[in-house]
Amino acid sequence: MKVFISVDMEGISGIVDRTMVSRTEGDYEKGRQLMVGDVNAAIEGILSVDPNAILKVCDGHGGMNNINPTELHRSATLVRGSPKPLSQVSGIDGSFDAAMFVGYHSMKGTLQGILSHTYSGASIASLHINGVEAGETAMNAGIAGFYGVPLVLVTGDLAVTLEAKAVNPEIVTVAVKEAVSRHAADCIHPEKAKEMIRQGAAEAVKKRRSIKPHVVPQPVDFTIRFTDASRADAAMFIPTAERLDGVTVRFIHKDYITAFNAFIAAVMCSSTAS
Ligand SMILES: [Zn+2]
Asked: 168-202 pLDDT, tens per residue?
């Protein structure tokens, strides 16, 4: 069995604000220790079902170099650094049996979602994929689905677990904290949270065959609402961009990966326009 694990940071046990997720902040070292703790718990859960599982972990937060390689469970390889193809799910392909998203967060504007945003808090007001608003969970589940890989586990705050259930109610979820605002939450103790993640990961791999991959019908429409018009202006330099209004740009491509790549290029262009 091959399992791919994408890891973000905002949904990690105990993390509620940027003091633990930003490299320049004082508690960042504590945040990255908590991050690898949640990932290793997922790995232990998978290995409890299949001790020979092949595991690939992709660091998907910020500069994507948060997980300390020596602290990751030795049974997994680690994809780290950025930019990289497919971004937060770099390295996934059709050879995997299941995907897991650990430490994920809800989409921009979510009520009681810890550090909620959609890929770039500065640039993106909303993302719609084929007309349905998507956060990073749905967006990256679509990449896994393109390769025929089911998303089987999502961990993070309560809000992102509800977002995952909206993508597919069969996905196993583990809520390690419940937000009371965007920067405050009632957190389960990290040791208890890790137990829950271990159990969730084991349950998820056992039921992987009954969870359908999230396949987005083609052609694929990524419609991006930017946070201001100058960012949309910058995205218009991409040849296939269509301007819908002052802040909205649409990309329609025949396959999911090409549409996703246009989205990433648009985010990169827009970040130069601030
Ligand atoms: Zn992140």
From this structure: 999 999 999 999 999 999 999 999 999 999 999 99
Q: Which is it for the CA torsion 161, 33, 88, 150, positive or negative?
A: negative
Report how far ligand 1's centroid is from the alpha carbon of 165 (Å): 20
The CA distance from 110 to 116, in Å, is: 6
Ligand 1 centroid, distance to 207 Cα (angstroms): 28
Q: Which residues surround ligand 1, an ion (CB under 5 A)?
A: 8-9, 61
Single pTM value for the model: 0.98
- Enter the DSSP assignment of 236: T
Q: How far apart are CA 144 and CA 81, in angstroms?
A: 20
Residues 142, 149: Cα–Cα separation, whole Å: 9
Q: Which regions of the chain does DSSP assign to beta strands (E)?
A: 2-7, 54-59, 76-79, 98-104, 124-129, 132-133, 151-157, 172-181, 184-187, 220-226, 242-245, 248-253
Query: How far away, in angstroms, is 132 Cα from ligand 1 center?
Result: 22
Please tell me the predicted confidence (pLDDT) of residue 143. Answer: 98
Catalytic residues: 117
